[in-house]
């Protein structure tokens, strides 16, 4: 097991290397650049001062040197400084992380609490009215784009009913509120983003859970359990669910990077000051070090999440040994 | 003496063609009656889809019939609800075809075998389960292992142990050797025969393989399209088949040159 983990960790080094190389290439191939963004609307910028800017950012050096430079700093756990405000990339990421974590951990918890029982119940009630209703509703839920639903909800609850704030994490005057009201205020801000982020995923996960459950229920060992006289509840929860939950481990593993990276469009729509918005802003302003930092952190977490899922499998399923 | 009595059992399934298509009725079991004497093995043969497994599952109360009655030892099973049926489960068990699908991959062998008794609130479940595993020819180390650590034949032995641990009177064998190699088939058939004599069991042996059925059965019933078309002694049915379908079935095996 320890050997397997070590092997997987060593294998992830070339993968990370490849990912960073491709990201680096893509952002430099993209037309435009930080100097263009900062100079094209400014008539006073002379070619001379643009060249000075390039030297300042190190963009005058050949591309491969820029990449090697970035790599050697990364080896010392240094992601470099942002072009926009010259602050360390690590600092900028850590500053945005709590907002994304708060929203995503809550939404992941809610998602599993709702989707798993829903899927199991609908599998147990196969061919019933509930199951048909569930199947068609989840199809609708799966098809609704999150940004469109977000805009509709903002219009309905924020503009027409004026019950909920439409964006941000807290009101402007939140700092002057007593603690209880501050918590109430942040819950209010959380509701819409949380709903939208959970809503879209429930359909997918619960249908996944449902089909997994249906597959297990058709196995002969479930029939045997019934023939033994085991009550249906025990058959479903003791024999079937334990096997049907296995694939969910993969989904949890895959959602780990999502916990940190946040949604680009989603966070931008709700002006949620998280990682997704940071990535979006840095992409719009060609802030190379920040883009590289966010992508590398996301890639690392994806690899770790996969490794975590594979290790969890070995514990959950006696058939798997490494 | 009759142990199992099947009386006018009917089971139809309604199948819809496509989402808006017309409903079509499949007569899986169509007015079937027969009885199995205590200590007897009744072979039930027929091609796949003829309703033999459906019939078996109705007898063992895994499926509900549309009409008809099932008696076990004189008690009418079809009149009982889930809880009333529970103590009677001890007397009837099932062995399935695919030993890879019929063992829960995440439950240890010992626990799987003992569970039958635990449902019946037997306090000696663990010891009895271990003894039963020994009886079907498995090493005592099998108790704490998982299903994937065994071969197909060994797994079928585990399934047999699980079925027999409550000391039932009646066992439904639903194609118990069809997914095994021929050499292993013979071992399992012999084991089933030995256990029958030792424990005084009664089998309903469902199979599409006439050679296997002939080997183990005292009487044979032939099923086609939900009906039992012929039922007779083992020797009689192979030597003097009356029904046209039975003749065809036996003829098809003889034509392939395999010894019956």
Describe the structure.
The complex is a heterodimer of chains A (322) and B (260). With 322 residues, chain A is mostly helical. Chain A contains 14 helices and no strands. Chain A folds into 2 domains: 2-75, no CATH class; 95-316, MetI-like fold (Orthogonal Bundle), CATH 1.10.3720. In chain A, helix 5 runs antiparallel to helix 11. Chain B is α/β, with parallel strands linked by helices and 260 residues long. Chain B has a domain at 101-168. Helices cover 35% and strands 27% of the residues of chain B. Chain B has helices spanning 52-59, 82-85, 109-119, 125-135, 152-164, 182-199, 210-216, 234-239, 244-255, and strands spanning 2-16, 23-37, 41-45, 67-72, 75-76, 92-95, 170-174, 202-207, 219-224, 227-233. In chain B, a hairpin with a 6-residue loop joins strand 1 (2-16) and strand 2 (23-37). In chain B, helix 3 (109-119) packs across helix 4, helix 4 crosses helix 5 (152-164) and helix 5 packs parallel to helix 6. The model of chain B has no long low-confidence stretch (mean pLDDT 88). At the A-B interface, helix 9 and helix 10 of A face helix 3 of B.
Name a few traits of the molecule.
heterodimer, A: 322 residues, mainly alpha, MetI-like fold, 76% helix, B: 260 residues, alpha/beta, 6-stranded mixed β-sheet, 4-stranded antiparallel β-sheet, 27% strand
Can you give me a brief rundown of this structure?
The complex is a heterodimer of chains A (322) and B (260). Helix content of chain A is 76%, strand content 0%. Chain A is an all-alpha fold and 322 residues long.
How many structural units, i.e. domains of chain A?
2
Helix run count of chain B = 9
Query: Whole-Å distance between the termini of chain B?
Result: 30 Å
Beta-strand segment tally of chain B: 10
Averaged pLDDT of chain A:
84
Tell me the name of the CATH homologous superfamily of the largest domain in chain A: MetI-like
Helical percent range of chain B? 25-40%
- Give the helix/strand class of chain A: mainly alpha
Please name the two chains that share the biggest interface, counting residues whose Cβ lies under 8 Å from a Cβ on the partner chain.
Answer: A-B, 19 and 28 residues
Write down the overall mean pLDDT of chain B: 88
Structural class of chain B: alpha/beta
């Amino acid at each position: 097991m320890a050997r397997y983990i070590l092997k997987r960790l060593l294998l992830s080094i070339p993968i990370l290397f490849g990912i960073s190389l491709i990201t680096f290439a893509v952002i430099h191939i993209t037309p435009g650049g930080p100097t263009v963004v900062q100079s094209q609307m400014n008539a006073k910028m002379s070619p001379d001062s643009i060249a000075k800017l390039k030297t300042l950012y190190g963009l005058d050096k050949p591309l491969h040197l820029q990449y090697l430079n970035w790599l050697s700093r990364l080896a010392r756990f240094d992601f470099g400084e942002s072009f926009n405000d010259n602050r360390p990339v690590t600092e900028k990421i850590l500053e945005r992380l709590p907002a994304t974590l708060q929203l995503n951990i809550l939404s992941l918890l809610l998602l599993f609490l709702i989707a798993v029982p829903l899927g199991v119940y609908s599998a147990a009630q196969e061919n019933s009215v509930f199951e048909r209703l569930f199947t068609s509703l989840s199809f609708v839920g799966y098809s609704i784009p999150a940004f469109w639903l977000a805009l509709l909800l903002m219009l309905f609850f924020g503009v027409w009913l004026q019950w909920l704030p439409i964006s941000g994490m807290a009101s402007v005057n939140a700092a002057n509120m007593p603690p209880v009201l501050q918590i109430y205020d942040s819950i209010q801000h959380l509701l819409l983003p949380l709903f939208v982020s959970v809503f879209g995923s429930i359909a997918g996960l619960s249908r996944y859970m449902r089909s997994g459950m249906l597959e297990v229920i058709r196995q002969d060992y479930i029939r045997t359990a019934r023939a033994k006289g085991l009550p249906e509840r025990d058959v479903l929860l003791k024999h079937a669910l334990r096997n049907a939950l296995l694939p969910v481990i993969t989904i949890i593993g895959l959602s780990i990077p999502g916990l940190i990276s946040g949604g680009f469009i989603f966070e931008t729509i709700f002006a949620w000051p998280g990682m997704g918005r940071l990535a979006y802003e840095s992409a719009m302003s060609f802030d190379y070090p920040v883009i590289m930092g966010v992508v590398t952190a996301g890639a690392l977490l994806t690899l770790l999440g996969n490794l975590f899922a594979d290790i969890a499998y070995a514990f959950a399923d006696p058939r798997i040994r490494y | 003496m009759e142990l199992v009595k099947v009386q006018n059992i009917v089971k139809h399934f309604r199948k819809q063609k496509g989402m808006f298509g017309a409903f079509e009725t499949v007569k899986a079991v169509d007015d079937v009656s027969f009885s199995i004497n205590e200590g007897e093995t009744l072979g039930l043969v027929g091609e796949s889809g003829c309703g033999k497994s459906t019939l078996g599952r109705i007898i063992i109360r895994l499926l509900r019939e549309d009409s008809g009655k099932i008696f076990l030892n004189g008690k009418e099973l079809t009149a009982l609800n889930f809880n009333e049926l529970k103590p009677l489960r001890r007397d009837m068990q099932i062995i399935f075809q695919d030993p890879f699908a019929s063992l829960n991959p995440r439950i240890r062998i010992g626990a799987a075998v003992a569970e039958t008794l635990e449902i019946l609130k037997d306090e000696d479940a663990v010891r009895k389960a271990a003894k039963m595993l020994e009886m079907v020819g498995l090493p005592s180390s099998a108790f704490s292992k998982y299903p994937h650590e065994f071969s197909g034949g060994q797994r079928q032995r585990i399934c047999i142990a699980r079925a027999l641990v409550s000391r039932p009177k009646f066992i439904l064998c639903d194609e118990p050797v069809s997914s095994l190699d021929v050499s292993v088939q013979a071992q399992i058939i012999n084991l089933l025969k030995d256990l029958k004599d030792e424990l005084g069991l009664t089998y309903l042996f469902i199979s599409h393989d006439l050679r296997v059925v002939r080997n183990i059965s005292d009487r044979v019933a032939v099923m086609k399209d939900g009906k039992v078309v012929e039922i007779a002694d083992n020797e009689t049915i192979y030597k003097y088949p009356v029904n046209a379908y039975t003749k065809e079935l036996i003829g098809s095996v003889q034509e392939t040159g395999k010894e019956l």
